[in-house]
Design goal:
By secondary structure, the protein is α+β, with helices and mostly antiparallel strands. Strands 2, 5, 6, 7, 8, 13, 14, 15, 16 and 17 form a 10-stranded mixed β-sheet that branches. α1 packs parallel to α8 and α2 crosses α3. It starts with a strand and ends in a 5-residue tail after the last helix.
Length: about 425
């Protein structure tokens, strides 16, 4: 038997804007331990687990999800839900590491995933404030205007529609910078509504959620897996998928991965004249910088902005730094978009996210462990990677292999 529970992290502090109108129960409900048999057991009921559960139940598979918290109350509630097809690293960097064809494939997979999420939202009738947006990629200390021109040429060689905006064009649109790239294909959503809608679809098809329940140990054999929880539940399944985000067990090969702290704010709704509705002002915005500032408007015209990322710190340390970090984000926000000078945050929170050295997620089989898989999506486009994980692991459960699985494998070179 292997330990699954390596201790809980406090994945966020403060209260995010997505929780403002939530109907979360005030306490954990009392339930009797259960003994279940299923096709797939998913550890984690956040947005990644939700995408997986929806896909697997759509395939006709029986699914059980286990989460130590109430569903969708971990790191998903801290997400800013910029649904980018771009990775945290520029394509120039990805091409330098992996070559042109691999970089083109990665971009293509991500560019298909974002509208695919929109199609799924529409099909299931999920009210998640999903909207397609262009992305505005501002020059920064990682790529200057000249470098962005090179990035543009590479994108165009990959048949990705891209336009360069110079300093004057940016100024006309209310932004400060020496240059930026505008590309279609990004999106925004309410991450809590999205994940809850996906889980509701899965539950309607028969999925069972054990929560609160801490998966403590599991055993993997050639015929399947067994999982036990601290609360006394036992689940036998044909396969297990770890989708528990940043609380990954020690046996997961994670040399390429590190945890990072981030801070976010959301303003009160602003006037349309402050954040005008003509593209690219309605874009999801981020910088070619390290750490980078990111911002977008919500459906009710709040401005969400975040950044000031740094080394992983425990929740009490992050909380103590929130006021300082919020001031820094507001200053950067006004520096990039002067019309936002003087806006004040109505919500502020900190969160934890993961980063990999190649900016790619970790999706696929757990090396050396039969019937065991992982879906860890990282970086600024974690929700996009969650949708990709559903595609990759659906192919694995069907007995095949996704054509691009090797790019995301946990033991990739």
């Amino acid at each position: 038997m292997d330990r699954l529970d390596d201790g809980a992290l406090k994945l966020r502090t403060g209260r995010s804007v997505w929780q403002a109108g939530s109907d979360e129960p005030s306490g954990d409900r009392v339930r009797e331990p259960q003994a279940l048999t299923t096709d797939v057991v998913i550890i984690g009921a956040g947005v990644t687990g939700a995408f997986l559960a929806e896909r697997f139940t759509r395939m006709g598979r029986r699914v059980v999800l286990i989460d130590r918290r109430r569903p969708v109350t971990g790191s998903t509630a801290a997400s800013t839900a910029l649904l980018l097809w771009e990775l945290d690293a520029p394509l120039l960097e990805i091409e330098g590491r992996l070559g042109f064809e691999a970089a083109k494939t990665i971009a293509s997979v991500c560019r298909r995933a974002v509208p695919g999420i929109g199609g799924l939202v529409n099909e299931l009738g999920i009210d998640a404030d999903f909207a397609l947006r262009p992305s505005l990629y501002l020059a920064g200390d990682r790529l200057d205007a000249h470098d962005l021109r090179e990035e543009q040429r590479l994108r165009e060689a990959m048949e990705i529609e891209t336009r360069f905006l110079g300093e004057g064009e940016l100024a006309q649109r209310g932004f400060v910078g020496e240059g930026a790239l505008v590309s279609p294909g990004a999106a925004e959503a309410d991450p809590v509504k999205l994940a809850r809608g996906l889980l509701a679809a899965a539950v309607q098809r028969g999925a069972i959620i054990l929560s609160p329940a801490t998966a403590s140990v599991y055993h993997a054999g050639l015929e399947g897996v067994s999982v036990e929880t601290r609360e006394g539940d036992s689940v036998r399944a044909g396969a297990m998928v770890l989708a528990n985000g940043y609380e990954m067990p020690d046996f997961v090969p994670a040399a390429r991965h590190e945890l990072v702290s981030t801070w976010v704010l959301a303003t009160a709704p602003v006037a349309a004249s402050v954040w005008p509705g003509d593209a690219p002002s309605d874009a999801v915005v981020w910088e070619a910088a390290d750490p980078y500032l990111y911002m977008r408007a919500t459906a009710d015209r709040r401005i969400i902005a975040g950044g000031e990322d740094g080394e992983f710190e425990e929740a009490d340390v992050r909380e103590a730094k929130t006021e300082e970090k919020v001031r820094a984000i507001l200053a950067k926000l006004a520096g990039r978009c002067p019309a936002l000078e003087g806006v004040r945050p109505e919500y502020a929170w900190s969160g934890v996210f993961g980063a990999t050295e190649d900016s790619l997620p970790m999706i696929g089989r757990l090396p050396g462990r039969p019937c065991s898989f992982a879906a860890f999506g990282y970086g600024g486009n974690g929700i996009t990677f969650s949708a990709i994980a559903a595609d990759v692991l659906a192919a694995e459960l069907e007995g095949g292999s996704h054509p691009d699985a090797g790019l995301f494998a946990l033991d990739r070179d």
